[in-house]
Known about the structure:
Number of strands: 0
Helix content: 55-70%
Low-confidence stretches: none
Distance between the termini: 33 Å
Structural class: mainly alpha
Shape: globular
Amino acid sequence: MLSPATAPALAPETEPSIERRIGECMATAVGALAKGVVEQLNGGLEPKTKSISGKCIAELFTLRQSTLGELDFEKVARIYGRLILQERGDDMQMADALDMQIVDDLVDEVLKILDVVVRTQLH
């Protein structure tokens, strides 16, 4: 598990690094997935949430394909996605409310969805 002491610092950048772009996209996908679960429990998935989720998965697919052989995509997505979510929680003064085990579980689910897309697109 990643601890604050071993996590890379995320300094503001003019041109986001590929790692930050992957993290931003992962964080947005995790948020959309969580929102979609709540919507499903309350009567059905909203079209806007479905659209955001699809766009995030498509962007993650593109980022994954563009970084093949350059970095460990899954590791980067996990670490930076988690860090971006922590940043967003801090910005909303909700960092204490973030259950990082749930965040990790949601990241796992996004990566599983991405894996299905990869397998269907590349076979």
